[in-house]
Each structure stands twice: as structure tokens, then as C-alpha cells.
């Protein structure tokens, strides 16, 4: 494994920690600033919106420089945003810090996926992407509970200062370990936008929104579901979320292992399994043991889709992958926001705390249908590069070949 992947994973660990640790610190932050819990919840919403907006925005700005340089700038933004959050004297400044940090999120994972894939041989690309995303999954197992404990013991500001320190470690690692990657020849915004002419890219992003939405329709409301339905104590919810993180970690490894061998069959299996588990979760939520098993499976099946979906976008936008890859990261967060909203609607309608599981099952099933449709279209569609060169049926100018960025000793 190239050491550069470790540097990317450390950056992903810090980003994953800062994204999710806020949920365990909201009461303390609300008390310190004298605001309500719903108002403090804007720190979560603002971050998600920042990811969706920042992913394409920062990537577009990054088309003017090399990918390594962009990654360094993004980690610098991440450090600055978390330091601002740690020192913010007012709630408004705290929100601004969260948004600054979130601007780095989508572009880091999007460009990082392209860089990770370029560091290895073609038949190991999904595994390299999964290695980077391991940092995100480990953050939910280790970073989030540890950050919550630090915040409860010595104050939430310390948690964000520590996360900023992680960002510095990631920045130094990228500077020293990631090889110089000049701006790809022919990289222009117009060229990057041509990737979106390919319906397969759009279908992959729609699968991302719906599939990941299925996961977070249930997980967003896991606390009230587990305390009011399963009978767990409030303190046990933290460990259930750790269990979810373990599932994420295992699923990410599974996706990275098999996506290079059988990408579409893996998507059929994981999305179909996710839909079934979420549907059954409405029943298993009434049992402590079965609820815990369900949470583990939701995390595993949900994150097993991440490497294949990200690789699917890279493959289908092979002539101009950078913007498409980053936008797909924004699609994950769009799915989170959509699912949280829909889950809240069914709870508000009086359908109970398990109702979001049905929403998640329907979203995952819809993603499975899109995967089947995508495969059917692929059997009679033009090659992915054709969409990046121009519309089918028209004569197009040839594009320059991608730079040879594979490490010595490995096939580009």
C-alpha cells in the first residue's frame, strides 16, 4: 500500500470526526451559547449544506492547479475552520467555522478518490479508494466517541482543537507522502462538465443519494428509536453508534475488496440487502439484541456501497473525473439531508419512531432499481469516454491521454 494512502486516510479520519462528533456535543454547545437545541442543530445542517455547495465549488477552483496542491489547500481550510470553531466567541462565529471546515469535505474526498485511484494499478483502484475511506469509518468507531468523551471531560472547545491538530497531521502527511501531481493536461471546467452528459454518471449519483439516504433515514433517529422502542438507556446510544461505525468499517472493507472484481453484482447485493434489513428493522427495533444486529448490518451494507459507487463515477467519467467525483461526495450528504427530512415527516405524522425505517427501505429499493436500469442501459450505451469527448453521433476532438501518475513499478 502506498504511504500516500495513509496520509489521505488520516485526513479522512479528521474530517469524519468533525462531521459527526458535533451530534454528541450539541447540548454543551447550546448551553455555552445560550441557544436552544434546535438552534444548535443548525451546526449540523450548516455543515451538510457547506459540503453540498463546497464540493463542486472548491473542485472547480482546483482545476487551475495540481491535485496535490488542492488537497493541501483543502486541509488548510479544514484546520482553519476547526480552529475558528474552537475559539468562536459567538454562536454565529461557531457556525461560520463549521461552514469553513465543511467546504473542504466534499472536494477532499472527491479529489482524494481520484488521487488514490491514480496511485495504484487499474485493478486495485476500488481498494485504494476504500483505504482512504477507512479513515472516515474509523472516525465513527474511534474519533467520534473519543471526541465526545474529551468534550464532556474538559470542554467541547478542546475537541475541536484536537481535530484541528489531526488536520495538521494530515496536511503534513500529504505534503511529504503524496507525489507531485501537476494539473492534468486539458483540465478545464468545460471539459469536467462534459462528464455530466453521460447518463451513467447521473444514475450513479442518484444511486448514491437514494442508497445512502436509506441508511440515514434510520440512523438519524436512532436515539429516540432505541430509547423509546428498543428500551435502551440514553447512555447506551453512544455504544450503538460505535457498533454502527464498526459496521461501516467492515462494509467499506467489503466494498473495496469486491468492487474491482464485480462492481454491479456487489451493488445489487448490498442495496437489496439494505432494503430488506431496513424493512425488517421496523420489527427488530423492538428487541435489544436484534436491534443491535440490525444497526451493525445497516452500517455494513450501507458503506459497502461507497467504494463501488465512487469507482462507478470515476469509471463513467474517466475522461473528466475530478468534478464528478467531488459532486458524488456531495450526493452522499444530499442523501443524508433528504432522508432526515423525510424521516422527520413520517414521525411528525404520528407513524412512530420506527417509520423512518420504511422510508429508508423504500429509498434503498429505489436505488436498487436504478442500478438495474443503469446496467440495462450500459449494455447498449456508448463507451464512457465518448460522453467526455462529445455527444454520440458527432465527430469529436480527441482528448489528451491522462498523465501517468502510477508509482514506479506499477502499471499506469
From TrEMBL:
Spans annotated as Disordered: 387-412
Pfam families in the cross-refs: MFS_1
Domain (Major facilitator superfamily (MFS) profile): residue spans on this chain: 4-382
Cellular localization per UniProt: Cell membrane
SUPFAM superfamilies the record matches: MFS general substrate transporter (SSF103473)
Transmembrane segments: 38-58, 70-93, 99-121, 133-154, 160-180, 201-223, 229-250, 262-283, 289-309, 330-352, 358-377
PROSITE patterns according to UniProt: MFS
Alphabetical list of Gene3D superfamilies matching this protein: MFS general substrate transporter like domains
Compositionally biased region (Pro residues): 399-412
Keywords: Cell membrane, Membrane, Transmembrane, Transmembrane helix
Protein name: MFS transporter
Organism: Streptomyces pactum
Amino acid at each position: 500500500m502506498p504511504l500516500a494512502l495513509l496520509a489521505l486516510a488520516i485526513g479522512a479520519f479528521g474530517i469524519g470526526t468533525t462531521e459527526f462528533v458535533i451530534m454528541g456535543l450539541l447540548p454543551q454547545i447550546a448551553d455555552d451559547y445560550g441557544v436552544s437545541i434546535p438552534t444548535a442543530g443548525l451546526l449540523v445542517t450548516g455543515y451538510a449544506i457547506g459540503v453540498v455547495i463546497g464540493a463542486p465549488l472548491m473542485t472547480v477552483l482546483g482545476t487551475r492547479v495540481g491535485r496535490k496542491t488542492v488537497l493541501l489547500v483543502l486541509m488548510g481550510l479544514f484546520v482553519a475552520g476547526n480552529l475558528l470553531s474552537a475559539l468562536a466567541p459567538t454562536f454565529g462565529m461557531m457556525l461560520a467555522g463549521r461552514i469553513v471546515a465543511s467546504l473542504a469535505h466534499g472536494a477532499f474526498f472527491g479529489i482524494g478518490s481520484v488521487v488514490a485511484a491514480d496511485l495504484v494499478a487499474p485493478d486495485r483502484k476500488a481498494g485504494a479508494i476504500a483505504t482512504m475511506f477507512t479513515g472516515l469509518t474509523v472516525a465513527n468507531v474511534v474519533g467520534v466517541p473519543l471526541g465526545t468523551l474529551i468534550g464532556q471531560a474538559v470542554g467541547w472547545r478542546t475537541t475541536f482543537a484536537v481535530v484541528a491538530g489531526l488536520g495538521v497531521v494530515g496536511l503534513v502527511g500529504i505534503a511529504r507522502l503524496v507525489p507531485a501531481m501537476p494539473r492534468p493536461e486539458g483540465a478545464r471546467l468545460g471539459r469536467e462538465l462534459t462528464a455530466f452528459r453521460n447518463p451513467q454518471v447521473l444514475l450513479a449519483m442518484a444511486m448514491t443519494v437514494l442508497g445512502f439516504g436509506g441508511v440515514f433515514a434510520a440512523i438519524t433517529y436512532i436515539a429516540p428509536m432505541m430509547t423509546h422502542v428498543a428500551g435502551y438507556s440514553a447512555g447506551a446510544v453512544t455504544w450503538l453508534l460505535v457498533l454502527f461505525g464498526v459496521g461501516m468499517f467492515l462494509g467499506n472493507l467489503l466494498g473495496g475488496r469486491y468492487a474491482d472484481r464485480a462492481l454491479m453484482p456487489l451493488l445489487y447485493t448490498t442495496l437489496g440487502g439494505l432494503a430488506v434489513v431496513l424493512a425488517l428493522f421496523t420489527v427488530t427495533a423492538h428487541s435489544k439484541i436484534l436491534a443491535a444486529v440490525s444497526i451493525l448490518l445497516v452500517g455494513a451494507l450501507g458503506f459497502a456501497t461507497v467504494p463501488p459507487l465512487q469507482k462507478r463515477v470515476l469509471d463513467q467519467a474517466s475522461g473528466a473525473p475530478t468534478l464528478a467525483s467531488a459532486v458524488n461526495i456531495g450526493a452522499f450528504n444530499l442523501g443524508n439531508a433528504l432522508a432526515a427530512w423525510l424521516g422527520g415527516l413520517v414521525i411528525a405524522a404520528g407513524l412512530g419512531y420506527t417509520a423512518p425505517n420504511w422510508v429508508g427501505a423504500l429509498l434503498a429499493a429505489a436505488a436498487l432499481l436504478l442500478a438495474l436500469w443503469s446496467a440495462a442501459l450500459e449494455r447498449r450505451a456508448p463507451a464512457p469516454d465518448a460522453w467526455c469527448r462529445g455527444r454520440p453521433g458527432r465527430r469529436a476532438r480527441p482528448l489528451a491521454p491522462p498523465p501517468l501518475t502510477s508509482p514506479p513499478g506499477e502499471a499506469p
